[in-house]
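QA checklist item 7 of 12: single-chain prediction sanity check.
[x] sequence parsed
[x] length recorded as 149
[x] structure emitted
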Amino acid sequence: MLFAVFGISAAALGASLARLGVVNDIVVLATCVCCVLLLLAERWRPGPRGQLTREMRVFVAGLVVWFLFIVQANLLGLKIVSGHNWEFIGFLVFVGCLGYISAYRIFANEERLLAIGKELKSPAGFNPQFFRKVFRSSLVSNSLRVMFL
């Protein structure tokens, strides 16, 4: 965000857009390197660590793929590598991973709710008619109590 303010101000004051583009590529590459170093430092931190869940592994995999495409696009902007800018494909992979995580959680939640529903419908001591009558009578008695008090 700081670079955005700096870049807009510098462009308004007449700085070269090409030079600002080079500075932006360097800032993005430095940010990517810092993020990777922080992830590696967290991984090698001493002490107990839990295993990553399936959702987190998918998230990290999508993020790493996107980072690789970001690095390629910014190296392309610095003219260190040649080729085409395919950063949008990395973003598409990342969004696909987020969609997979959302769908996985939705289906897991629905499966859990169906299991609860089946347990409640089992004839082992649960009578839904009894609970409906109790609920209706308590609802009516509470309504009458509110009306006459």
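[x] summary fact logged: Residues 2 and 41 are 25 Å apart (CA to CA).
[ ] second reviewer sign-off
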